[in-house]
Amino acid sequence: MAKIAIAGCGIGGLAAAIFLHQQGHEICLFERFEKPSPLGSGLLLQPTGQAVLARLGLLDVVKSHGARIDRLYGSEVTNGATIFDLGYDQLGPDRFGIGVHRASLFHALWQKTGELGIEVKVNTHVVSRVWEGGKSLLMTEAGTQFGPFDLVVDASGSHSDLALNLGAPTPKPFQYGAVWASPINASGISDTLTQRYVSAHTMIGLLPIGTMPSDPHPRIAFFWSLKPEAYPIWVDEFEGWKQRVVALWPQTEAIVAQFSKPSDLTLARYGQRTLKRPFAPGVVHIGDAAHQTSPQLGQGANSALLDAAILADSLTLTGPEDVGPQYANARRGPIRFYQAASWLLTPFFQSDVNFLAALRDALFQPLASIPYFRTEMAKTFGGVKTGLLTSAAPENLAHVKSKDQIKLPSSSHR
Ligand SMILES: Cc1cc2nc3c(=O)[nH]c(=O)nc-3n(C[C@H](O)[C@H](O)[C@H](O)COP(=O)(O)OP(=O)(O)OC[C@H]3O[C@@H](n4cnc5c(N)ncnc54)[C@H](O)[C@@H]3O)c2cc1C
Fold it and tell me: Would you kindly state where each structural domain of the chain is located, as residue ranges?
């Protein structure tokens, strides 16, 4: 039994805590906020994330709150042309996404953590780790020291101080972020992630996300692409902006009517960083702390869940000393693929490069009419790609049963 510290009570940290506690390890979770809570908009749970939740025994409860998503549809406002129209049925029978309010996913994970009696230290901002005699000590912003621990799991998200203090580069910002909100779903859209574009500089997105545990009204995640530096202008022109959204997409009228002031929406900045080695002696980084990107492909939360499951499996195959390379090798293919795909594809959907938008409009639909590419596109958004030409079933991606399943060390991780 190992003594394990987990920094961050987000999606990855809570999932890791549950898996590792169930293996009999002694877990202590650290959270910087007084009251851990879900930050951020609704999200799309792919079959991969669903497979991890099934292992945790939480899929049914999350599904019961979420909205089943069968299709992804995007079109150009100016001429009505379809940009993409893809279905989960390409991934096999009974495959679908689940649009979920973060509060529902968080609540399910948090409640289970409480039921298992996992120790949580709140109001504890972890900043660095000291490695001494084969054990880790955690240092907090307030100067308190915790430990020694056999293993530290850094699940502290895209602004991880632990990663920065262990030498990680700062994330590269994307040109565009978004303002988002989760109003009541008055759109008439129930099973489709729907997006409207003008070139790539304007994007409106709607994702049904079901209900929250405390509120029976079905909600929808609303997104508007925005450059962070343009936020003050957007605030000043708020009423005019609302009219513009409805003019671009009349179906949003009853959604936009629910926004009475700019603070009803939240600004999200997007950045990209991929740790080459998501581990150091006695530490592993999971989720956004290890690989952050734009949410264009909707994989971040799913990847954090997969990381947690594979980290736990890797620990059963090795001791805490060797778990870092095992875990990193098991996750390397999918993470490389999705980080690269996200970096390459985001400018086609969120940028000022009109040429890329024109290329997107000319190519995506014709390519999707060819069965091979249609399936590859569905596999890409479904989260099951492991490389350019390879993929795996979600259940296999969410479970490592033997060392043979892991491609063992390649030079980049030495
Ligand atoms: C607008 C938007 C839309 C998105 N849509 C999707 C989607 O549709 N599908 C999808 O899969 N992903 C989506 N994502 C990405 C997804 O939200 C993230 O990838 C995911 O939340 C990462 O989980 P995590 O556990 O690594 O980090 P987080 O969920 O960010 O959790 C980190 C936790 O660590 C805590 N913490 C931070 N620093 C410290 C510290 N120093 N000490 C202690 N605690 C600390 C934080 O308070 C937080 O509780 C979206 C992201 C955004 C911004």
Answer: 3-66+102-173+272-355+370-400
- Closest ligand 1 atom to the C-alpha of 292? 19
Task: Please tell me if the CB atom of residue 31 comes closer than 6 angstroms to any atom of ligand 1.
Answer: yes
Q: Which of 16, 6, 25 is nearest to 307 (CA)?
A: 16
**Radius of gyration over alpha carbons of the chain, in Å?**
21
Question: Could you tell me if 138 and 126 are in contact, meaning their C-beta atoms sit under 8 angstroms apart?
Answer: yes
Nearest CA to ligand 1 atom 50: 295
What one-character-per-residue DSSP string does 374-409 give?
Answer: HHHHHHHHHT-BSSSS-B--HHHHT---SGGGSPP-
How many Cβ atoms from other residues are within 10 Å of residue 27's Cβ? 25
> 126 pairs with which residues across the strands?
140
Average pLDDT of the residues in 161-180: 94
Is the distance from the beta carbon of residue 125 to the nearest atom of ligand 1 less than 6 Å?
yes
130, 209, 326 from 149: Cα distances, Å: 10, 38, 19
Domain 3-66+102-173+272-355+370-400 coded CATH 2.30.42.10 = no
Give the H/E segment covering residue 27: strand 26-30
153: part of which helix (H) or strand (E)? strand 151-154
C-alpha 197, offset from chain centre:
23
The structure tokens listed for 243 are 């009219």
Which pLDDT tens digit goes with each residue over 29-46?
999 998 877 777 899 999
pLDDT in tens, 76-108: 999 999 999 999 999 999 999 999 999 999 999
